[in-house]
Amino acid sequence: MTELVPALASGKLAVRDLVAALLERVDATDAGIHAWVHLDRDRALADAARLDALPAAQRGSVFGLPLGVKDIVDTADLPTQLGSPVGAGRRPGRDARCVARWRAAGGFVLGKTVTTEFAFMHPGPTANPWNPRHTPGGSSSGSAAAVALGQVPAAIGTQTNGSVIRPAAYCGVVGFKPTLDLVPFGGVAVFSPTFDTVGTFTRSVADAAIVAHALAPAIARDVAVRARPPRLAYVDRFPWTGAVDDGGALESAAATLRAAGADVVPVAFPDALEGLREVQRTIMLGEGARSMGPLQDRERARFSATLNAGLDEGRSIGDDALAKAHASRRAMIAGAIAWLASYDALVAPPAPGPAPEGLDTTGDPSCCTFASLLGAPAVTMPVGRAANGLPVGMQLVGTGGEDSALLSVAAWCEAKLPRWKGLA
Which residues are catalytic? Predict the structure, then answer.
């Protein structure tokens, strides 16, 4: 994308030619993967022709860049159907605020990518592009798969617990979850306001910064690889997860970073944070039931058993229990900030292993719970392949509000690690 942006801005590459090539790529690679729920080819080509006609002075920072948009994010010119029969035929009247920012910066929407039902845990039809017998992760399944296949240079999704970082890791792309609320959430289907965050899928850290800057101008567009090797806290698992089975890829990446000069320090997870997963779940399901309760009352028969069970559990969480969980979260945020104050980032697995086999699950999100509960920025990048050939990643978690600094650390790590060979 770092080469694509200037080529489009200068007119050296026509937007229409790019779109035509991407549509050909979709035709060649999407059978059996199903990354897209709505792709209006004529509209995409018409958008491209309109952009090609703009004078140079009107071309923004992501001029001509097509974006895949998760199907819980409102788009005025395309349906937003929420991954559910309940949303069938739904046509929003306006763009979500993040989509409006993308268009204002010169980009456009190529199409809508598959989401799990209401961005919860019931899978959609998307399969893993590395092996279609395996899950692509969720809930931003289609966004991760489309970028992995080279069908679109960038896509956006959302994360409540693990829905950006995990599918990015499973599909072998770079996933970036910014600090909570840095990208506006207006016009996106809400599940848990305390955690819901818009994030990005790209093929490199530099590309993640370009996309994120258009959505949140506080994030630096041009990420400089930091000059000083970073000091990184390292955990090979979280207390609430089992042993990580990634074929040794994370430890190998840590060893490579040490050899390149990074101070990678194994750290013990503080006892005060070990209940973090339960606190996150209480808030997530409690808020989900309050956000979606009226809709569930009307549409229970058309909700999946998975979604109904999650919302029913949330209904059983009283106001006092929810308030107590919020108080615990605030204490945990303060404790985590103090714990990691002397480090540039935390290094951790983004998932307990590669994508599991079967399309009836989206995999275990629990390696993402730490960053989600904190509202902190996180990025994952592919660092190797497991014994079964599927990608595995490395997650970096930063301090809330320090997104540019985290991306700079990630760019340093990316530059020192072996070059990743993706699918396209």
Answer: 70, 139, 163
